[in-house]
Design a protein that fits this description.
The protein is an alpha+beta fold and about 450 residues long. It has twelve helices and 18 strands. An eight-stranded mixed sheet has the order 6-10-11-18-17-16-13-12, sandwiched between helices. A hairpin with a 2-residue loop joins β16 and β17.
Length: about 450
């Protein structure tokens, strides 16, 4: 009889373990995939790829007990050798090989040259070979940055007293309404994929006061642009007992400050690899929707026809305006017209044609939508009736309000869009592990 007592300590070391120890002149063991082989004749450099980066191994003819010509790139191996400091090598050391054991070998040639700094191929080719293209260090670094954003979101909100929840993605009714829904059959009943966790997180405000979720959402919009996806990851939170929608914007500002600091301190290798300069989020300007339109129209001599929403070019110009005038990459645009906001958005008591809501633009692209919600049951029912909506499928949602809800609000952040803008890419698919759009359901 054997018992497991916890994590098994391995003899093979990770890069962080090597850097934390004193190994000069000592034999160590590492495991990894062969990223590239540079044969210089009597000496060869075998570079291993590990989760924390690259390890340079030196093969010297006559000193290493294996044949170099039998090695293949992307084979996984266990290498043993003597540690030697070398400032020219990744992480400042190299491994003088004494032995190498092949653990597995590839069955086919690589479709892409992943050892290059930047893949010189099309986005389509990268997405068609996603499992391989992500092995490229630069491609991989994008999603380490994305991990840092999500980690920052979770850690910051835990510190602010939020409870993490997990809501269903199958439902009978959409929180957003409209026709852009993925419809399906659920045991002979009509169902949809959720566009948002909105109903559920509002219901949970009555339970936990403050809740958040990081999960996929689905939009059946027939867009085929560089900024749209049909499935994306939304960073959502909802908080009760607010004094106004400004509390929501302040909480997001705090998250951004926390996340940027986390990236700066714990993701420095990825920042350097991607040559990223993090934006200044010490303070973020706020401007009313109608005022933003006026400022842009006046400064850039441009008039836009849609009085109820911001067109993509308009968002770009607003971002440009606040960068030029206030040196800010971010700007909160507040008080969107009620006509373009969901039924649960709280109307501005001073002017009900506008709402107590906002979008956050980052370098001219909307990455967040949020605001204060209607918390009074009778007021909510009046707005539903005014819009001619049916309440079928919303009974459980409405029951939460019928039995009392605190003043509350929240937001949803598009993770892929935030990542895209942060790393300076032009297509949101570059910041999506496995994109789903009009034409792509694989891999």
């Amino acid at each position: 009889m054997e018992f497991l007592t916890g994590v098994i300590k391995k003899e093979a070391l990770e890069i962080s373990e090597i850097l934390a120890g004193e190994y000069e002149g000592k034999a160590i063991r590492v495991r990894g995939a062969i990223h590239t082989i540079r044969d210089m004749g009597e000496v060869a450099f075998i570079v291993l790829r590990k989760r924390e980066g690259l390890v340079q191994c030196v093969y010297e003819e006559g000193k290493t007990d294996f044949s170099l010509d039998k090695l293949k790139e992307e084979s996984t191996v266990e290498a043993e050798g003597v540690y030697k400091s070398d400032e020219r090598s990744p992480h400042g050391f190299e491994l003088r090989l004494t032995s190498l054991t092949v653990l597995s070998e590839p069955a086919a040639a690589m479709p892409l040259q992943i050892s290059r700094f930047k893949l010189s191929t099309s986005l389509e080719a990268k997405l068609n070979n996603r499992a391989v293209s992500l092995r490229n260090l630069r491609e991989r670094a994008v999603f380490r940055i994305q991990e840092g954003i999500t980690r920052g979101f979770r850690d910051f909100l835990y510190g602010q007293g939020f409870t993490e929840i997990h809501t269903p993605k199958l439902g009978a009714k959409s929180a957003e309404g409209g026709a852009n829904l993925f419809k399906l059959e659920y045991f002979h009943r009509p169902a949809i994929l959720q566009q948002s966790p909105q109903f559920y997180k509002q219901m949970m405000v009555g339970v936990f006061d403050r809740v958040f979720e990081t999960a996929p959402v689905f939009r059946a919009e027939k867009h085929n642009t560089k900024r749209h996806l049909n499935e994306y990851t939304s960073l959502d939170f909802e908080m009760g007992y607010i004094d106004g929608f400004e509390d929501i914007m302040a909480m997001e500002t705090g998250f951004l400050q926390y996340a940027m600091k986390l990236l700066e301190t714990e993701y420095q290798p990825e920042l350097e690899l991607l040559k990223l300069k993090l934006p200044n989020v010490e303070k973020i300007p706020c401007v009313r929707f109608d005022e933003a339109k006026e400022r842009v129209a006046e400064k850039y001599d441009r008039q836009f026809r849609n009085p109820f929403d911001l067109e993509p070019e308009e968002e770009v110009l607003i971002g440009r305006y606040f960068k030029e005038e206030y040196d800010s990459d971010f700007v909160f645009v507040t008080h969107y017209p009620s006509k373009k906001r969901p039924f649960y958005a709280m109307d501005d008591p001073a002017d009900p044609t506008y709402t107590l809501s906002f979008d956050l633009l980052f370098k001219g692209l909307e990455i967040t939508t949020g605001g204060q919600r209607i918390h009074d049951y009778h007021e909510l029912m009046e707005k539903i009736e005014k819009r001619g909506m049916e309440t079928e499928g919303m009974e459980h949602y409405l029951s939460a309000f019928k039995h009392g809800m605190p003043k509350h609000g929240g937001l949803g952040i598009g993770l892929e869009r935030l990542t895209m803008q942060l790393i300076g890419e032009e297509n949101v698919r570059e910041a999506t592990l496995f994109p789903r759009d009009l034409s792509r359901l694989e891999p």
